[in-house]
Specification:
10 helices, single chain, binds SN-glycerol-1-phosphate, TIM Barrel, 8 strands, alpha/beta, 8-stranded parallel beta barrel, about 250 residues
């Protein structure tokens, strides 16, 4: 478990980590390579590749292979379906969308994808993926019954169940491009219930939001849309500094 140990050692040095999401459907190969190198320079701890709308497996495999050469930080797959399992990455958020209404996203896609995870030598990071709110691609594609933003206790109950099931990662997902991120209060409530690695993403694009989520107990924040929409690396560097020292 190289990647999991790496993330833990990063957390000993930093209060929380930045993961940058590259959607291989949005950013093509050349821009992804440059982006990955730029975000490594400013201190990102991992690159996630995937997302619920990234369904072109061939393009994704190219992007992963292309990025890999230029960076030292791990590439972690973030699959929205079995098409999100590709070679050459270091690890995969092996996720169950626990609050989906469709068993396909809870256990079936996992069973269909598992043999490829083994074949490609990807380190599986057992993750409870919880979709918060509604109206986003992750919510729609994953047939999620979104946990209401103002019901932190429900999210905490899912996180506790995830822990009892042996999952070491929980990902609170407001959805890519969400109008607002998950609330710090929800993060705080989940943090009390869950001892593992807590990832928070969706709608994070400013320093204050990022540091409030870290103060509430997030171990890693995922940022994607901010860069896709032309946000500067300089601003991301400021956000990263705030994330790494805010607890
Ligand atoms: C989406 O949580 C990630 O799956 C990142 O969200 O694109 O809103 O940064 P954004």
């Amino acid at each position: 478990n190289k990647v999991e140990s790496f993330l833990k050692s990063e957390l000993e040095k930093k209060n929380a980590l930045l993961f940058v999401l590259i959607d291989s459907e949005e950013s093509k190969l050349e821009s992804s390579q440059k982006l990955a190198q730029d975000v490594e320079k400013i201190g990102a701890s991992a690159i996630l590749v995937g997302g619920s709308s990234a369904t072109d497996q061939i393009e994704m495999a190219k992007v992963v292979k292309g990025i890999k050469k230029g960076i030292k930080i791990p590439i972690i797959l973030f699959p929205g379906n079995i098409t999100g399992v590709v070679p050459d990455a270091d690890a995969i958020l092996f996720s169950s969308l626990m609050n989906s209404e469709n068993p396909y996203f809870i256990t079936q896609a996992q069973a269909l994808g598992a043999p490829s995870v083994l074949k490609f030598g990807l380190e599986p990071l057992p993750t409870a993926y919880l979709v918060i709110g509604d109206g986003t691609s992750a919510w729609f594609v994953g047939s999620a019954r979104g946990i209401p933003f103002e019901k932190p206790k429900i999210a905490a109950a899912y996180a506790l169940a995830a822990q009892f099931l042996g999952m070491r990662f929980v990902y609170l997902e407001a959805g890519s491009g969400a109008k607002s991120s998950v609330t710090p209060e929800m993060v705080k409530t989940v943090r009390k219930a869950f001892n593992g690695f807590l990832i928070v993403g969706g709608g994070i694009r400013d320093t204050k939001t990022a540091s409030d989520l870290v103060k509430a107990g997030a171990d890693a924040l995922v940022i994607g849309t901010f860069l896709e929409k032309g946000g500067s690396i300089k601003k991301l560097a400021e956000i990263t500094k705030a994330i790494q020292r805010s607890k």
